[in-house]
Amino acid sequence: MAVKELGESHGGIFHAHLLLLDDLSLRNDLVAAVVDKRLNAEHVVHSLAEQYARTMRSVTDPMFRERAADLLDVTDRILHHLLDAERPNLKQLQHPCIIVAHDLSPSDAATLDVDHTLGLVVDSGSVTSHTAILARALEIPAVMGLSLMTTHIENGVDIALDGSVGIVVLHPTKGTRDKFLQGKHLFEEQREALRKAVEAGPCRTRDGVEVPTLANIELPIEVPHSLKANAEGIGLYRTEYLFLNRDSLPTEEEQYQAYLEVARALKPKPVTLRTMDLGGDKFASHVHFARDENPQLGWRAVRFCLARPDIFKVQLRAMLRASTEGNVEIMFPMISGLEELLQVKAVLEEVKEELKREKVAFDPNIRVGSMIEVPSAVALTDALSQECDFFSIGTNDLIQYSLAVDRVNEKIAHLYEPAHPAVLRMIKWTANAARAAGIPCGLCGEMAGDPLYTEVLLGLGVTSLSMSAVGLPAIRAEISRVSLEEARALAREVLKMHTAREIKARLREKFESDGRLAGYATPLHGAKT
Ligand code: PEP
Ligand code: MG
Predict the structure, then answer these.
(1) pLDDT at 84 (0 to 100)
(2) Does 442 contact ligand 1 (Cβ within 6 A)?
(3) For residue 364, is the peptide bond before it cis, meaning its omega torsion is within 30 degrees of 0?
(4) Which pTM value belongs to this model?
């Protein structure tokens, strides 16, 4: 049945599930534990599955390792039957509620019923995991990385949460509820006031230097939010979301329409289409991704694209075609060195030649940029800058790779430190190389949306900032307060410091010197560990 509906490759997944259910040794172990040892059936199913999955994951063959996910999926279904519990459908909630999950993948988050999701409480992940980034973009308050929190929360209990400071309160008293509701209203008022105070059009520092402020988007529904927040363009379109939550690859036409829609809506403002960054924490079920042992160091972004030029070229064709109708530029993620950049550019040239032969229109002068988010790329920015029209620093990954802190691992989230002196130096080196080559150096990681860092980033030489639209009003207001001269002095001062603690203390002191309160990201909203 599934094979008929989904086709051989996808229906085959269910065949694998059925085989697992028929596995004799698994069945025998189950029966023995329940009948002979008189253990609770749900407990036995759960612990046996975990035990089998552990063994499967320890095998080197990736195909076998991948079957562990199938086993856990089947187990989940069996447990729901045993417990007589319905599997919740996050796409269509019956009433407004806070979703509590042990894990929530970015692909699950991308299909959330936004109108009924009041908040997210998730055991795994951290502030810069893509689930958190998406929650922020969709303006859903979220608290991430709570370890075993979900084991203490039962279905249907009252919860209050504050995503700005990362607090979850179970069974809140009336007083606590009122306090949280007041906080929510205050946040909304502040945000509205900021929106009104900052005028549309180019954003300038106090001493008159233009600093373009742009929006990051994952889904086309974020375009109206971005325009409302006065975005001067889309600085990062995470196109990989087009590949998630579907049974087949998006066609060239589907992709073309998606890029075209955004390019037209923004025209003449720039739209930076980032080629797909699949892998890491974003997996497309229809592309055969055997999960790597270390997915953040694995088959991700341009590494995947260069291995699958058939898929990559379709995307590049769609992007190039969309360039006729707007101000479109193409950006490559996870570039780690010059060879890689030259290779992806060569594929782009091939695609351009193909389109020329087919007499399909595209902008022949389309600008091409590289994300700078791998430390080896920072060391090579002098060479990379000769091959790019722009740089965009991806601090989410740059911090993860330079400090060796997996950005989705809640156990080490406290070590993830944007103010680390090594990170600030790398931003400085990248900006210096861009300036020497005469190209702009933007920054599109979550740091761009945190007002605490605005002044120092400008002082380090970053020329534009791109962030979730929700952060734009506060950052635009912040830029108009900053003088570039003072910002440079602040950058010089903190570059001499050797610890994140000293740097953060100095940034806070400067930030609070005129009565502002330092907090992470957009005030009173967003995701926080
Ligand atoms: C980054 O790494 O900073 C970035 C903007 O890209 P992503 O968060 O999608 O990895
Ligand atoms: Mg990145």
Answers:
(1) 67
(2) no
(3) no
(4) 0.81
